[in-house]
Amino acid sequence: MSAQAQLSQLASLNRRSGKFHELEASAYAAVTQFITGQNKLGLARLRHLQRECLNRGYAGIGLTVLSLLVRVGDIASIPALAEIASGVESGSREFFMEWSGAMVSQDPTDLEHASSVAKKYGFDLTAVELATHALNRFHDSGKVHKSMRTANKVVAMREQLPGLVSTVFTSIEKPKMTRREHQIALFVAQGESNNSIATRLQ
Q1: What's phi and psi for 123, nearest 5 deg?
Q2: How far is residue 75 CA from its own chain's centroid?
Q3: How distant is the alpha carbon of residue 67 from its chain centre?
Q4: DSSP H helical segments within the chain, as ranges?
Q5: What are the phi and psi torsion angles at 88 (to 5°)?
């Protein structure tokens, strides 16, 4: 292979890697929009990113985007999460399969088990969210004993994650933001740089 061909191949890899990072950053910015009250815009942006990942064949980033869609409450994304998770070669495959299966079944025992698997793989926030879902399902079905045990588990896990923000928890439980913090979060969600944000806040 000629030196020019090698340089072209490296440039192509760099562009692909740059696109991965761009898509991932855009996905987290969309979640920020969702959490800061721009629900429809954030959800639409995540769905657009998922279609782009699918069209480009970026299964790994697609899995990240789908997991974010599920975490913000887009139930329609759960079957796609299960499908992509089953085909991705990843050390976390078991976690994604358990998570998607539990979300499809909505069985509190499955949700609680998936929470344990998430914790095992280091997905602490998802573990708390799944345990919270399980708690709600146990409570709704009148299984008080299991509900109390799961509630203790949720409290213990949430104490280990100070400042926890998730769409699973009610707005009363979310930390309150000042007007300025909210404004900064919106600028971040819009993709503004630190320098640009600083200039706009002066």
Answers
A1: -90, 70
A2: 13
A3: 5
A4: 3-35, 39-56, 59-71, 78-87, 93-105, 108-120, 124-140, 144-159, 179-189, 194-201
A5: -90, 130
Q: Give the pair of three-digit tokens for residue 19.
A: 């696109």
Question: Looking at per-residue confidence, does 175 or 83 come out higher?
Answer: 83
First to last CA, the chain: 54
> How many beta carbons lie within 10 A of that of residue 190, not counting itself?
14
* Interatomic CA distance for residues 185 and 179, integer angstroms: 10
111: tokens are 């949700």
46, two tokens: 């995540």
Q: Tell me the C-alpha distance between 45 and 40, whole Å.
A: 8
Q: Tell me, what amino acid is at 120? A: K
The whole-model pTM stands at 0.62
Q: pLDDT tens digit string along 73-106?
A: 888 888 888 888 777 777 778 888 888 888 888 8
Locate 157 and state its tokens. Answer: 């896990």
Give which of 41, 31, 36 is closest to 69, Cα–Cα: 31
Classify residue 110 by burial, with Cβ atoms within 10 Å: 0-12, 13-18, 19+.
Answer: buried
Q: Which of 111, 94, 92 is nearest to 102 (CA)?
A: 111
Return the structure tokens found at 189.
């969600």
Which tokens in the block code for residue 37?
Answer: 């009250």
CB neighbours of residue 10 within 10 Å: 10
